[in-house]
Amino acid sequence: MHQLSHSKPLRIALVGTRGVPARYGGFETAVEEVGQRLAALGHDVVVYCRTTEGAEAETEYKGMRLVHLPALKKRSLETLSHTGLSAGHLFFRRPDVAIVFNSANSPWLPVLRAAGIPVATHVDGLEWKRAKWGTVGKRYYRVAESLAVRWSDALIADAAGIQDYYRAEFGVESTYLAYGAPILEGGASDRLAEMDLEPGRYHLVVARFEPENHVHVIVEGYVRSEATLPLVVVGLAPYADEYTRRIESLGDRRVRFVGGIWDQELLDQLYANARIYWHGHSVGGTNPSLLRAMGAGVATNAFDVNFNREVLGSNGEYFSGPADIPDLVHASEASESDTVLRGKKSQTDALAYDWDRVAEGYEQLCAELAGRRGARGRRSGAFPLDRAGS
Predict the structure, then answer these.
(1) Which of 89, 119, 122, 365 could pair covalently with 156 via S-S, beta carbons 3.0-4.6 A apart?
(2) What domains, with CATH codes, occur in the chain?
(3) pTM score, whole prediction
(4) How far is 129 from 131, CA to CA, in rounded Å?
(5) Bridge partners of residue 45, in order along the sequence
């Protein structure tokens, strides 16, 4: 990356996620990848993390300073409660700019505005479409979107489809900042033996177990097929025991449920050596798992929505339900050369998704917001992090 492109380092707060190291989803991946690069550019970056019981709270990670705060252990309140505490902590520290992830956190934006902190909200995907939310939850997310539009100084969208939605629904523009795709090269496969797998001889799913990620659709469709290669399912989900049981009940002896895998080397080898990666995500914009698969050079079959077509294009094969999957399974097992070619083309396309360029986009946006703050004469006081709050 380039060196610090602005004369003055910025104090940047990244708020609203589980924090780093990234062990959960796309937001955490973005915070880790962008935050470490902003820190390397000379900026003072602080990440607000959720306290983990029984784990030692680190104060620094890859150049980023960390603040650990608790959260209510209830699905509907966990994110909002943690961000509320984070906003209160920030009120007295007043960074140059804050990036708030997830429009669900928008009720706390007035706290940051009252402190004179410019705010960009990364609005994520269409959260109100997620099946895990009931009627009240869906209504909340629709209201939260409108509040994010009203109270943010800027909006960040990680997909053109999300930009289109906010333009059509609210008549506002957003800054397009997608995720990066790690390019995996070298062809290592030595770790596969740990899972009794061979290169090119298995199908792969990596996803949180949530209905809109359609793991149940993939498993059901695969089981209907005459597949001879196993389906390896990597994933789990908090608060989703019933859905997890449903997915597992759909499997047969060919389906291997392996739970969550946090060993990145092993996970990378699983991606890079799969015959097919099956991607069922449907509401979250540009997805890091999809980009990782493309960067690993594995052919991908994806759920048929605009976000996935936007990224995969003609290199993908698409499905809408279980009935579509058997033919795709049979085609992938009948011709390994075709899947290898599709994977190589996707890996070339993945080069356009570069974390360095993404971080530069965040840096530029932060500089613009900090500049507006100065133009408005907002306070730009110190941003100390007391050890009691770390």
Answers:
(1) 122
(2) 11-180+354-375 (3.40.50.2000), 190-350 (3.40.50.2000)
(3) 0.84
(4) 6
(5) 12
